[in-house]
Fold:
Amino acid sequence: MKPQIRQLASLGEQLQSARYRSFVGRSAELALFRAALDRAADSFAVQFVTGPGGVGKSTLLQRFAYEAAVAGRIVVEIGEHRPPQSPEAFEADAIKMFTDEPAALFVDDFETYRPLEGWLRDRFLPRLPAGSLVVFAGRRPPGAMWLSDPGWRDVLQVITLGDLSRDDAGALLTARGVPVARHPAVHSFAGGHPLALSLAASAVDDVTGREGAEWTPSPDLIGALLTRLVGQVPSPLHQQALEVSAHVRTTTEGLLRAVLPEVDAGALFDWLRRLSFMTSVPSGIRPHEVIREALDADLSWRDPERYQDMHRRLIRHYVGEARTAPDPPSFAQLEALMYLLWHGSGLFGEQEEYDFREDVVRAGDRRALLDITVANTNDETAAIVEFWLERRPEAFSVYRSSMSGEPAGFVLTLRLTEPDAEENAVDPVVAEAWSYVRRVSPLREGEHLALARLMLARDAFPSPVSDLIAARLVTMAIQDEGVAWTCMVVSDPERWQRFALFGEQDPLMVGVGDRIFGLFCRNWQETRLDTWLEQLTPRRTPAAWRAPRHRAVRTYAVLSRAEFDAGVRGALRSWNRPDELAASPLVPARVVAETGGEPVEALRRVLHEAVEKLAADPREVKLYRAITMTFMQNTPTQQAAADRLGLPFSTYRRHLTRGLERVCELLWHRELLGVSGVEAS
Structure:
């Protein structure tokens, strides 16, 4: 007997069957297509599937074509990556649409056919037989002429394709053979992006089966993903703009102008804005999360030095922007800085919208603030809150529901210039802060201690209210002139580790009733805020978003006001003696060290700038002349200086004394605030 030979399906049928079995999700899109399929039988229907690269448009189009074939339609598919078409060539490819049989046309990679868009809309589609169904798929939505034409309003349906849900993403990974134990790691990288999930599923095999091995995307996988999703970038400047957009929360034309000053920021922003994976939000544009993560990871691996330099430039920009903004800066400004420093750290919730607002304490708030305090701490702390409400109500910032106006949280920030016996007796945390500060590095004239005493909210941390509280603390650190120490009190021991980066020591433990609070302190007398923030390494480098637990790298010497004034007077007397200037106690102080360059020349430049400020004020020109004649013109004696100025010696001495006082005042102000602080003021 002749053996029976089993009929094998064609390769195309096998591929189609495999695609059908592995297809997951998109139930809403399939329902819309099936409805269009039914509607087209009686009239006509056009669908446009749009979405960023890799989101699954081609896969969905294949499933639509399968559904149309099962429904008895002639299927006409014009595939992607064809060369640009002429109207004649396109019509030849779609000739089967002009038969007596019901047909469905599927056009993928519609960007290829953009030159024909007007012809397709106005000439080709209107000639199709009644009952035709057409589906286009492309990265960008149809042009404005489609949407503004009343004739197309009832015919055209735009379907915007997004990421898969978490359940559908898990189903895709399971269909690709990824063990369930590996799903969280892949989800963390790929989210619901179908192409990223598929590429990651293939790469997971590299660690599957190795005990304890954790999967992370390799540089090769990230490179492959970027090649597919981003493609060729026009120039290195476009690449830099893309990298900036991936590293920040949102990008604006102004941001590009600030951090890439040599480029045409408007043209670069317009280019970014047109990219299919960019989304417009109220504060700017941002890339799809998967592409953002891939771009950021790729640069940090490919060029870590440039990555960190970009990070530092962005920090300087955001700090400068917040420092010169009105008080308070907009939350968007502070949110941008917090995202740059702590995205992914859990220190803030990264909400899209906030239904709360910052306000002052108002009549009737007392009970609500005490209830929030007791719920988070204890009765003893509530008594301390009552004390500060009576003594310093202006120190409270209250966060209210935008709808009800009810307090949802508050922060108590104290500006302390000297210890107060009553305050220390009532509040042991304040007493401990003063004890630590005076023991380590006491305040100087014009300085103060900023203490974030309480940060409490009704909702669990992190929350929208805690985000707003964090923004208030950042404002305090950036805009507070003359702050020598910043101290922060954390009520929950489980959160101490997260907030360790704010302190330069292990938390000081302070008991209030039955609760132990952690007190973190940081000294700004020897290290500027900008310098410290730049020491916080980007999140993709080792120990990301963590400051060293030891004291920050010191940049300046700390002088008392008396020591500083003596140094200024001595430096002026030594104006023409470089060896003595080199030994001046001002050389390692902030006012000179921050200026940079050779120390003697830097000291001379700082002194000269302060003296020249006297010349700019008509009321102080006489002080300027006394200073310059005495110290900068090789005048042998003070009597000779008075004679050259044509002044009685007593008048000359009065001008010189007042001039020295003013130069010391100007330089002391600069010593406390730093160059950028003086410029901002």
User: Anything to note?
Assistant: The two ends are 102 Å apart (CA to CA).
